[in-house]
C-alpha cells in the first residue's frame, strides 16, 4: 500500500480514535481529581507533594475537557502530536507529585504513547516514547534529591522507558498491518461490488430472459428481457402460477420429468412465442430453479427461410413440367372454343377448361413469386407515417365507393420492418376485408386501427371489416396454404401474408370482430429488437 493510501486510512479513522482518546482523558481527569480528596486517597496513595498533585490534576481535567470540546477532529499531525505531548507532560507532573515510579502513575503514560503511535507513524511517533522516558528519568532524578529512597528506582524507570518504546514499535507495526488489511478488504469489497454491478448489468442487458424461482414457487428475481418477453414486471414475491400460468405449467412438467423437452407458449394474446428451459441453481438438494426464456421468433424465422428456400427449389423444378402442358391445354381449349361445330354444352366445357387452367397458372405464379422473394431488409419505420402513406395510395387505386377509415393512436410508433413486404401484407388484408364487406361497386367500409398494446407495449395494427366473419370450423385453417372457401381463390393470400409477417418478426392473427366481421391483427416487434 502506498504512503498516500495509508495516510488516507489514518485520516479516515482519526476522528473516531481521537473521540475515544478524549473521552478516556476526561474520565482519567475526573478520577485523578477525586484522589485530591485526602479521605478518598487514604490508604491508596501516598503523595510526595499534595499541593502540586492537586493543581496538576485540576489543570489536567480542565485542559482535556477544553481539548475534547475544541479539538475533537485533529485533522493535522501537529495537532495530534501537541495534544499527546501535553498529555505526557501533565501526567509526568502528576507522576512527580505522586512520588515517582513507586506510585504506579508511570504506567499512565503508556496510553498516550500508544495512541500517538497509532496516529503518528515513523520518527515523530517514536519521539513520544523518547520524550516520555527522558521526562521520567529527569523527574526521578529531581525527586531523588529530596527523597533518597527514589534513587533506588532508576532500574524500574529504565524498564518503564523500554516498555514505552516496545509499545510504540508494536503499535506502529500492528496498526500498519491493520491498515493494510483494511485497505485490502476495501479493495476486494470494491472489486466484488464492481463485479456484482457488472454481472447485474450483463444479466439485465441479455436478450435471454432469466427468472429465479424459489422452492415455494415464488419469484426471487428476473431481468429486463424476461419482463419484456412476458409483457409484465418481474418482481420478487409473487407466485409464478399467478403471474405466468403457462410458464408454471411447464415448470411443473419439468419437475416431474426433467428430461422432457418443454414446448413453446404465448404469455398472452399477440405475444412472442417463448421457449423455456430450466436448471437447478445450486446442488441437487437446492430447489431454487433458474428459468431461461428464449424468443422462439428467430428460430421460427430461420425455419421459415429454409421452408421458403425448399419451396423455391421444388417450384423451380416442377414449374416447367406443369406450365408447358398447362399452356398447351389452355391453348387447345381456346382453339376448340373458336370452332363453329361445337354445341352450346361443349362451349361451356371449353370455358371451364380455360377457367381452371388460368386458376392453376395463378397458383403457380404465386408460388414462384413467393419462392423468388428476396430476404427482408428491415429498417426503423414510423408506423403512423407508413400507414398514412399506404392509405393515400390505397384510396387512389380503389373506387370512391370503397371507404377505408383509420384511427392512429399517436405519432412516433416505431418498429423494424421491411416496408415493401409489409405494404404487400397490408394491401392483401385490406383487399380481403373489402371483398368480404360487399360486392364490387357497392359501398364497402373497412377500419384500420394503429396503437401500442397496453400489456406488451408492442406496436399493433388491426384491419377490421364488417362482413359475415369466419365460421368457427374455418378459423383454424385460414392460414394454411391452398385452403380457401371460394371457388376462384388460390388459398395462398393469408398464408403468404403470415409468412411475410414472420419474416419481419411480426405476428399475424385472426380475431372475430364485434358484433360482426373479422379482425386481422398485426403485432410488430419492439423497435430495439434486431430483425
Describe this structure in words.
The protein has 531 residues and is an alpha+beta fold. The chain has four domains: 1-188, no CATH class; 209-298, Beta-Lactamase (2-Layer Sandwich), CATH 3.30.450; 299-372, Helix Hairpins (Orthogonal Bundle); 379-523, Heat Shock Protein 90 (2-Layer Sandwich), CATH 3.30.565.10. 58% of the residues lie in helices and 13% in strands. The protein has 16 helices and twelve strands. The strands form three sheets. The protein has a five-stranded antiparallel sheet.
Distance from N terminus to C terminus (CA atoms, Å) equals 51 Å
Unreliable runs: none
Q: SSE order, as H and E?
A: HHHHHHHEEHHHEEEHHEHEEHEEHHEE
User: How would you state the average pLDDT, rounded?
Assistant: 80
Q: Any idea how many domains?
A: 4
Arrangement of strands in the largest sheet? 2-1-5-4-3
Rg, please?
47 Å
Helix content range of the residues, please? 55-70%
* SS-derived structural category: alpha+beta
Shape: rod-shaped
Amino acid at each position: 500500500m502506498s504512503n498516500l493510501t495509508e495516510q488516507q486510512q489514518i485520516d479516515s479513522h482519526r476522528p473516531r480514535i481521537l473521540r475515544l482518546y478524549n473521552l478516556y482523558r476526561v474520565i482519567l481527569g475526573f478520577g485523578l481529581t477525586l484522589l485530591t480528596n485526602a479521605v478518598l486517597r487514604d490508604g491508596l496513595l501516598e503523595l510526595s507533594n499534595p499541593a502540586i498533585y492537586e493543581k496538576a490534576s485540576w489543570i489536567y481535567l480542565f485542559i482535556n475537557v477544553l481539548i475534547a470540546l475544541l479539538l475533537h477532529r485533529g485533522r493535522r499531525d501537529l495537532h495530534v502530536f501537541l495534544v499527546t505531548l501535553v498529555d505526557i507532560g501533565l501526567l509526568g507532573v502528576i507522576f512527580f507529585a505522586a512520588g515517582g515510579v513507586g506510585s504506579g502513575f508511570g504506567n499512565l503514560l503508556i496510553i498516550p504513547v500508544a495512541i500517538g503511535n497509532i496516529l503518528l507513524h515513523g520518527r515523530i511517533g517514536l519521539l513520544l516514547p523518547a520524550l516520555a522516558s527522558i521526562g521520567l528519568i529527569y523527574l526521578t532524578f529531581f525527586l531523588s534529591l529530596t527523597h533518597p529512597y527514589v534513587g533506588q528506582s532508576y532500574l524500574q524507570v529504565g524498564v518503564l522507558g523500554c516498555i514505552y518504546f516496545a509499545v510504540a514499535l508494536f503499535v506502529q507495526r500492528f496498526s500498519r498491518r491493520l491498515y493494510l488489511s483494511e485497505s485490502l478488504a476495501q479493495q476486494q469489497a470494491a472489486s466484488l461490488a464492481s463485479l456484482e454491478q457488472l454481472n447485474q448489468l450483463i444479466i439485465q442487458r441479455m436478450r435471454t430472459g432469466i427468472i429465479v424461482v424459489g422452492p415455494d414457487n415464488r419469484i426471487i428475481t428476473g431481468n429486463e428481457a424476461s419482463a419484456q418477453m412476458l409483457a409484465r414486471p418481474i418482481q420478487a414475491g409473487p407466485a409464478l402460477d399467478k403471474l405466468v400460468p403457462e410458464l408454471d405449467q411447464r415448470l411443473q412438467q419439468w419437475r416431474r420429468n426433467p428430461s422432457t423437452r418443454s414446448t413453446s407458449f404465448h404469455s398472452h394474446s399477440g405475444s412472442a412465442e417463448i421457449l423455456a428451459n430450466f436448471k437447478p441453481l445450486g446442488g441437487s438438494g437446492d430447489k431454487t430453479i433458474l428459468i431461461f426464456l428464449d424468443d422462439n421468433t428467430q428460430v421460427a424465422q430461420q425455419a421459415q427461410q429454409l421452408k421458403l428456400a425448399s419451396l423455391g427449389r421444388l417450384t423451380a423444378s416442377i414449374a416447367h413440367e406443369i406450365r408447358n402442358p398447362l399452356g398447351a391445354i389452355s391453348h387447345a381449349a381456346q382453339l376448340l372454343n373458336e370452332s363453329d361445330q361445337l354445341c352450346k354444352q361443349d362451349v361451356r366445357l371449353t370455358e371451364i377448361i380455360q377457367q381452371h387452367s388460368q386458376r392453376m397458372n395463378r397458383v403457380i405464379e404465386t408460388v414462384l413469386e413467393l419462392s423468388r422473394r428476396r430476404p427482408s431488409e428491415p429498417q426503423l419505420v414510423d408506423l403512423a407515417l407508413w400507414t398514412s402513406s399506404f392509405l393515400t395510395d390505397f384510396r387512389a387505386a380503389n373506387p370512391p365507393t370503397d371507404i377505408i377509415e383509420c384511427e392512429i393512436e399517436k405519432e412516433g410508433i416505431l418498429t423494424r420492418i421491411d416496408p415493401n413486404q409489409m405494404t404487400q401484407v397490408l394491401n392483401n388484408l385490406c383487399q380481403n376485408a373489402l371483398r368480404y364487406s360487399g360486392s364490387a361497386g357497392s359501398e364497402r367500409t373497412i377500419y384500420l386501427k394503429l396503437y401500442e398494446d397496453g400489456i406488451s407495449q408492442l406496436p399493433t395494427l388491426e384491419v377490421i371489416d364488417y362482413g359475415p366473419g369466419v365460421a368457427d370450423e374455418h378459423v383454424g385453417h385460414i392460414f394454411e396454404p391452398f385452403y380457401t372457401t371460394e371457388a376462384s381463390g388460390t388459398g395462398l393470400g393469408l398464408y403468404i401474408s403470415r409468412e411475410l409477417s414472420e419474416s419481419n418478426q411480426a405476428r399475424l392473427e385472426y380475431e372475430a370482430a364485434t358484433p360482426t366481421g373479422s379482425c386481422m391483427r398485426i403485432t410488430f416487434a419492439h423497435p430495439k429488437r434486431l430483425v
